[in-house]
Amino acid sequence: MAQRRHDPEQRFPPPGFGRVGTRVLEVLENVVYAGIALLLVLAALALLVLAGRTAWSLTGDLSQAPMLELLDVLLLVFIVVELLFAVRTTVEKRELVAEPFLVIGVIASIKEIVVLSVEAAGVVGEGAGFRDRMTEIAVLGVLVLLLGATSWLLRRKEREPDEGEGGEQGVAPGRAAEARG
After folding, report:
1. Which InterPro entries does the record associate with it (predicted)?
2. What's the pLDDT tens digit per position in 56-103?
3. Which of 36, 114, 132, 163 is the most exposed, fewest CB within 10 Å of its CB?
4. What is the C-alpha separation between 39 and 118, in angstroms, rounded?
5. Domain ranges of the chain
6. H or E segment and range at residue 174
7. pTM for this model (two decimals)
């Protein structure tokens, strides 16, 4: 009996445009990812140059403003490098991995908390301005906790055995006896 074309058990890829079209899209996807990676590397290098200039300016001015600017730029470098890691991971695994983006969110939130904390210190006792900054810091703090918890849950889920593997292979050693009865 001949296999039908839509048979899920068919072991051979469909002939014609499907295979060629998929390959063309894969190559174009790699070109786009390479472009993104190149732009992220250039951005990271430009930010490092800016950080170096800011650090050099600290030799003449040890005030709070250049220190905050340096910290701000360095945290941006971390964000860009983490984005580059996320792109590399996506290309290597051929799937979108959430954890690098969660780390980026944590770093970006912490960066804003640091900046807002310094700004809030400058407007202590000014009422609405101080209150607004403190509210933003609180919201960002909760966001950091939620992103951290999400990352933790993802890691925990990755350690669990796959569902549907059958038998007791996916059962933890302590639960094997419970599963038998």
Report:
1. P_starv_induced_PsiE-like
2. 887 877 777 778 888 888 889 989 998 999 888 888 888 878 888 888
3. 163
4. 31
5. 30-57+64-95, 96-158
6. helix 173-180
7. 0.65
